[in-house]
From TrEMBL:
Residues 234-298 form the Signal transduction histidine kinase subgroup 3 dimerisation and phosphoacceptor domain. Residues 356-446 form the Histidine kinase/HSP90-like ATPase domain. The keyword Hydrolase does not apply. It comes from the Bacteria. CDD domains: HATPase_UhpB-NarQ-NarX-like (cd16917). The chain crosses the membrane at residues 62-79, 86-104, 110-127, 134-153, 173-199. Pfam families: HATPase_c, HisKA_3. This is histidine kinase. It comes from Nocardioides humi. InterPro entries: HATPase_C_sf (IPR036890), HATPase_dom (IPR003594), Sensor_HK_TwoCompSys (IPR050482), Sig_transdc_His_kin_sub3_dim/P (IPR011712). Its EC number is 2.7.13.3.
Length: 451
């Protein structure tokens, strides 16, 4: 077992937080402090006057106004107990010693004892440094106990003299004078130790409140940061959505406009059909862009049921890919669509974000086929596997064309696909096939295995 001394010192050091660098601020003197000092002054004067009227100070040679001055000197010092706690504690201890020597009947009054208690309590509660507060209060405690011990020694000598002269009588196990001094010693130990421990409890309470306040500030900062990140993420999402919507519908409009121009004189019904597709696609593009821009204007709005969630527009999902593929079958481009599910209805159960990513991937890949490829056919396959240890959803777009001359791409479409896939920690393959054509494949994990 470790020695008791070091273990006890470690426990006391931990309780009094001697290694804690936190400093409790000493506030300026406020109305609260003035009211406290005035209250103690009034209570002290009243109790001293009652004691004087009861004859408690008959043996005191000092005038009555000196007694009141002594009381005022202690009570009014409490006005500074929070601003200068250690200085007030030392002053009140000296006040107690001098008054106890000169006028012990006055020093023993309840009002003054409360003032002395408050001085020692405030030193521990409001001392900026734990080491300084503990040093000052410990010094006061040792000094006062030595003073009481000296009184005990004097009392024992007085008892010996009384026993010798036979002028004293015993009423219990101890002689009267040492019994009184010993009782006083015990009362003073409880008094001073209680003031020190009470002050330390008050300090620890203030320390805990400060820690909780700092935690609240940290949580508020983190919440603000997360909200800002959510706003940025939502803006990036809207930017990708706008790119996909504009790219898809503008490519449709461009291809149909070119076809209508070529057959305008030879086949007016075909030109009218192409213009109808242009009209429908432009209306859909305008509607979707208005919806996205409305979300962008209200990006910081919160839904009523979930304040931490950004309001979002309804988005297409995996079940809309078939309609997307069908709409691309024009101007000589043949399209095909296939679904591979290990369980019936697996695609319909995909999470909304996963379905949107699959849809936007297929949309961007087909738009690039129309704009930048000579392909005559394109196929889209969606695979969903819910069983096994690694369930996934996958979309693959294949075409048989080559890059069309005199066309260029900004690369933003492929970047958007990669960003979407990265947000799901998925896999992406984009590039030419070894035989002929181009391939875009995206695989997204679906979390843990499903039953």
């Amino acid at each position: 077992m470790p020695p008791l001394g070091p273990a006890l010192r470690a426990r006391l050091g931990a309780y009094f937080a001697v290694d804690d660098e936190w400093e409790r601020g000493n506030p300026a003197v406020t109305r609260r402090d003035v009211v406290t000092g005035a209250a103690f002054e009034v209570a002290g004067v009243v109790t001293l006057e009652l004691a004087r009227s009861a004859g408690a100070f008959d043996s005191v040679d000092a005038p009555w106004w000196v007694i009141y001055l002594v009381m005022s000197a202690a009570a009014l010092a409490l006005v500074l107990r929070r601003r200068y706690p250690l200085a007030v504690a030392v002053y009140l201890s000296a006040h107690m010693f001098v008054t106890g020597v000169a006028m012990p009947q006055v020093m023993g009054q309840v009002a003054l004892q409360i003032c002395y208690f408050m001085g020692l309590f405030s030193a521990m509660a409001w001392g900026r440094s734990r080491r300084s507060a503990l040093l000052v209060t410990s010094t006061i405690l040792v000094f006062m106990l030595c003073w009481v011990a000296w009184q005990f020694a004097v009392g024992q000598s007085a008892q010996t003299w009384l026993d010798t002269t036979g002028e004293d009588e015993r009423f219990g196990f101890l002689p009267p004078v040492p019994a009184i001094i010993l009782l006083t010693f015990i009362v003073n130990v409880v008094y001073f130790v209680g003031a020190i421990i009470g002050g330390q409890v008050a300090w620890r309470g203030a320390r805990q409140r400060e820690a909780l306040t700092e935690q609240a500030r940290t949580i508020a900062r983190q919440t603000a940061t997360l909200q800002q990140r959510a706003v940025v993420a939502e803006r990036l999402r809207i930017a990708r959505e706008l790119h996909d919507v504009v790219g898809h519908h503008v490519s449709v409009i461009g291809v149909q406009a070119a076809g209508a121009r070529r057959v305008l004189d030879q086949d007016p019904p075909a030109a009218a059909g192409a213009l109808g597709v242009i009209e429908e696609s432009s209306r859909e593009a305008v509607a979707q862009m208005r919806s996205l821009l409305g979300t962008l204007r209200d990006i910081e709005a919160r839904s009523d049921d979930d304040p931490g969630r950004l309001s979002r527009t309804s988005s297409p999902g995996a079940t809309d890919i078939e309609e997307l593929v069908t709409s691309r079958a024009y101007d000589g481009l043949r399209t095909s669509y296939a679904i591979v599910e290990d369980r019936p209805g697996a695609m319909a159960r995909l999470p909304e974000t996963v379905g949107l990513t699959l849809y936007r991937t297929a949309q961007e890949a087909l738009a690039n086929v129309v704009r930048h490829s000579t392909a005559s056919s394109a196929s889209v396959r969606v695979r969903v596997t819910e069983a096994g240890d690694r369930p996934f959803a996958e979309v693959e777009v294949l075409d048989d064309g080559r890059p069309r001359p005199a066309t260029s791409s900004s690369g933003m479409g492929h970047l958007g696909i990669r960003e979407r896939v990265a947000s799901h920690r998925g896999e992406v393959e984009i590039g030419p096939r070894t035989t002929r054509g181009y391939r875009v494949r995206v695989r997204l994990p679906l979390g843990g295995p499903r039953d």
